[in-house]
Design brief:
Blueprint (H helix, E strand, L loop, with lengths): L1 E5 L3 H12 L3 E5 L6 H9 L4 E2 L12 E4 L8 H8 L4 E3 H6 L5 E6 L4 H19 L3 E5 L5 H4 L8 E5 L2 H5 L8 E4 L14 H8 L11 E5 L3 H7 L7 E5 L10 E8 L2 E4 L4 E5 L11 H16 L4 H10 L8 E6 L2 E5 L6 H10 L4 E5 L12 H7 E6 L4 H7 L5 E4 L3 H11 L5 E4 L12 H13 L4
Parallel strand pairs: 1-2, 1-4, 2-3, 4-5, 6-8, 6-9, 7-8, 9-10, 10-11, 11-12, 16-20, 17-18, 17-20, 18-19
Antiparallel strand pairs: 12-13, 13-14, 15-16
Length: 455
């Protein structure tokens, strides 16, 4: 079959390579310029391609695979729809070839930490039972690049963004995890949180009787979505607030007397103090641990592996990561905080009196949502990027805001503004694409700048 692949990023290239291996005839079309590495790969695989725009050739296809960064409102996708060419995500395409068990994780916040933790737990179980655990998806490794390696005995832990789920039609994980739903990517979804949530809910749209959904019962939107409906799959809830049993709900994982407990079986899985550490702390990480425990148990993972994975887990890079001590201050890298709720979680976890570095490419954020918390805990905000004027307006009269023209300048301003013994928190609440390649690049540059400061 002829297939068009729109976008020559990591997921698009991986999808094209997978399609070639499956015997299809892909054509890769990139709106911008392709990297040297991408051109080299296309030539090596003898895949025809174009760059600097989409031509008529992209419509000569039985189906189209679209990269997650391309919105459904893009003219090329509207024309695909007009011509009746089916459009799928890279996740959907990879799922056609997947023989392994899949745990899929989505949500606004916590999905990377939860996915990483589940992967570590599954790796521990794999060592005991002789299977491999793969960590793929939004976490940075395309599903398509690993799907043919994963056999029926293996387990794929798949982090999923709303963008990746938009083009899923038949994809159905064995276990689907939803961490929470709060406003994010409102620029893409026209300010409509329900449109954003609908994309997230594609994770369970094709699940049947053998599937399980694990969701955060303390999240109002998730609770409303799942309560009062008859679903074809099993449901396991997690949360810190007690809830009444419901028909069709298989279990509830919570914290009681300082330990994570599965109320469905009555088993005490692990004490909270056994896995909480400076690099993995805060209420939001308790939720991440609950989600990981619930999902792992739903996938049949032993309690021994769950305990091993939790005890050894040290957090995720660029998520409330200790970046070092310099200029008499503690520096925290939270570059992965790309929305206001992620910033809120970091503000709650860091002691009061901090300097906050924030800003980047705005995604329709309402910064005033954390104004009370900022007033309580922040002594000064150093604003960077395209959103700095919006940040300054949002916190006018709440806290002093200093503008910085670069991240280097922001770090220097924060070093001057911080009181001895306090903390500088880099939690942008914005995407990175105005100044950086991605949030990893942003976080690495921040950590390098901290390393260059006087100890």
């Amino acid at each position: 079959m002829k297939a068009s692949v729109l976008g020559a990023g990591k997921s698009g290239l991986a999808a094209a390579e997978l399609l070639v291996k499956a015997g299809a005839r892909p054509f890769v079309s990139e709106f911008g310029l392709m990297s040297t590495e991408a051109v080299s790969l296309m030539n090596e695989l003898a895949i025809p391609f174009e760059e600097s725009g989409h031509t008529e050739r992209v419509f000569d296809a039985a189906f189209c695979i679209v990269s997650p960064g391309i919105p459904q409102t893009a003219p090329v996708l509207l024309e695909m729809a007009r011509r009746g060419v089916p459009v799928y995500s890279e996740i959907e395409a990879a799922s056609w070839f997947c023989s392994a068990r899949v745990i899929g994780i989505t949500g606004t916040d916590g999905k990377t930490t939860t996915a990483t933790l589940i992967h570590r737990i599954c790796e521990a179980e794999g060592r005991l039972r002789g299977f491999r655990a793969f960590s793929v998806g939004n976490i940075g490794v395309p599903f398509s690049s690993k799907v043919l390696e994963a056999g029926p005995k293996d387990l794929v832990v798949l982090e999923l963004s709303s963008y990746q789920l938009e083009g899923c039609v038949t994809f159905r994980p064995d276990v689907a995890v939803l961490t929470n739903i709060t406003p994010d990517h409102m620029d893409r979804y026209g300010g409509d949180i329900r449109a954003y949530a609908a994309a997230k809910f594609r994770i369970h749209a094709s699940q049947g009787g053998e599937g399980t959904v694990v969701y955060n019962h303390d999240d109002p939107m998730l609770r409303e979505h799942f309560t009062g409906e008859e679903w074809p799959f099993s449901i396991v809830r997690f949360g810190l607030q007690e809830c009444v049993p419901e028909p069709g709900v298989a279990g509830f994982v919570t914290v009681r007397d300082g330990a994570i407990v599965d109320l469905g079986s009555g088993e005490e899985v692990i004490g909270v103090d056994e896995f909480v550490k400076p690099s993995f702390r805060g209420e939001h990480n308790i939720y991440n641990a609950l989600a990981a425990v619930a999902a792992s148990r739903a996938a049949g993972v032993s309690s021994a592996a769950i305990r091993e994975g939790l005890v050894k887990f040290g957090g995720v890079e660029h998520r409330q990561e200790f970046a070092g001590s310099a200029c008499g201050l503690e520096w925290i890298n939270d570059s992965k905080a790309t929305n206001v709720n992620a910033m809120r979680q970091a503000l709650q976890a860091v002691p009061a009196g901090m300097v906050l570095i924030a800003g980047g490419r705005d995604k329709g954020n309402d910064y005033r949502a954390v104004a009370a918390l900022v007033r309580e805990k922040v002594s000064c905000i150093v604003a960077i990027g395209e959103s700095q004027e919006k940040l300054a307006a949002a916190f006018d009269g709440v806290v002093r805001v200093v503008m910085a023209g670069s991240l280097r300048e922001a770090v220097a301003e924060a070093a001057r503004a911080g009181a001895p013994g306090s903390t500088v928190l880099f939690s942008p609440a914005c995407s990175s694409f105005d100044m950086f390649r991605d949030f990893e690049d942003r976080g690495e540059q921040f950590k390098q700048l901290v390393r260059e400061l006087p100890s």
